[in-house]
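Q: My labmate handed me this sequence with no annotations at all. I'd like to see what the chain might look like in three dimensions before we decide whether it's worth expressing. Could you predict it?
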Amino acid sequence: MKRNIVYVVALILFMPFLSQAQDFRSVRWNRDLMVNLGIGTSTYFGEITGSGDMGKLNPSVILGAEYYFTKRFSARGQFAWFRTSGDDADAPGNEEDGRRVRNLSFASSNFEFSAIGIINLVPQGFRFEDRPGVNLHAFAGVGVMRFNPTTEYLGKRYVLQPIETEGVSYSRVTPVIPVGLGARIKLNPFYNLLIEGGYRFTFTDYMDDVSIRRYPDPASLKSDLARALSDRRAEYAPPTTSGRRGNPDANDGYFLLNVSLQYYIPWEVNKNPQKKLYNRDKYLRKKCKLRN
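A: Here is what I predict for the chain of 292 residues:
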């Protein structure tokens, strides 16, 4: 299995150089549709991070398909898998919000599906291979994300949502709004290196299973396990009953930073080559006339 993964990664890395061997016919017609595959990091922001605490870096993988509607505007459908996690034990030694005493932690494997619109700083050339060597862009969109917070207790990992540690039943699916910036670096006529960083606004405060300010009444929780995982201050030395559990005034969020290989595939809406040649010649004649 590991050997197969190495082969796939090596193939992806060398594809830009192998594609140099494609003949001139492969660049004669314009290409408006691209696919991308990339890896990167994810960072969670919520109750189990403190003020000025960037949280833990976790892995992420993205897969997308993008289409240019105009020379400057494109849209992409994208799938992302990423991990998020947090641990009060990692709080700074001088923390003031009682995170170490609270003693909570979580880890989650997440999936995101999103549709984003992209505005490029510099428009594409008449043909896809005439694009700039480096081009910046901004993006925004909508999506949906599924999360699944878990925690470890007495050597076993538990899914937290069904346990209802706060006596609250919440959904593990939430809408998200991705916004961010990116850059494309042209590797050759067919490939870009795509670098993007984007923050996701969510509509949930339960990515980490923590939200309410006061600890719930233990008698209101539905099981001994819920009571044990709701208030873990007794596991901290020395035991205490001070501090708050969460902050319901702000939803959780996360940031994805990814580097992708992007490929222009030979597909286009207009399949009429004669019309393409006519439009290209008309464009070139107009360009030469303006220069003269």
